[in-house]
């Protein structure tokens, strides 16, 4: 599973709320567990998880897909379509 797709999915799930990096990462770790149970190929070691998720957030922020304010993040309204594009790459692992 691509970390950017995972973070895009988490951001979209909370698109109207400002969330801290910790909250987003906690949701992502929970989602990783769900994906693993479904058999998704997760290639993120436990020791690298935080760094990988931070890098994904940094990429999304750097491309202005998410807005940052006072150490909180939320989806940039103009980037919903792009976030959906990334998140769609793991859509087949969603709950049925």
Describe, in plain words, how this protein is organized in 3D.
The protein has 96 residues and is mainly alpha-helical. Helices cover 53% and strands 10% of the residues. It is built from four helices and three strands. It has helices at residues 3-13, 21-37, 49-62, 80-88; strands at 19-20, 66-69, 72-75. The protein has a three-stranded antiparallel beta sheet. Helix 1 (3-13) crosses helix 3 (49-62), helix 1 packs across helix 4 and helix 2 (21-37) packs across helix 3 (49-62). It is globular and about 35 Å long. The two termini are 18 Å apart. 27% of the residues are buried. The model has no long low-confidence stretch (mean pLDDT 91).
Chain oligomer state: single chain
Strand content: 5-15%
> Averaged pLDDT, please?
91
Number of extended strands: 3
Note the gap between the termini. 18 Å
Over all CA atoms, what is the radius of gyration? 12 Å
> What is the helix/strand order?
HEHHEEH
The strands making up the biggest β-sheet line up spatially as 1-3-2
Instruction: Please mark out the parts with pLDDT under 50 across 5 or more consecutive residues, or reply none.
Output: none
Structural class, by secondary structure, is mainly alpha
Global outline: globular
**Continuous helix count:** 4
- Helix content range of the residues, please? 40-55%
* Largest sheet data: 3 strands, antiparallel
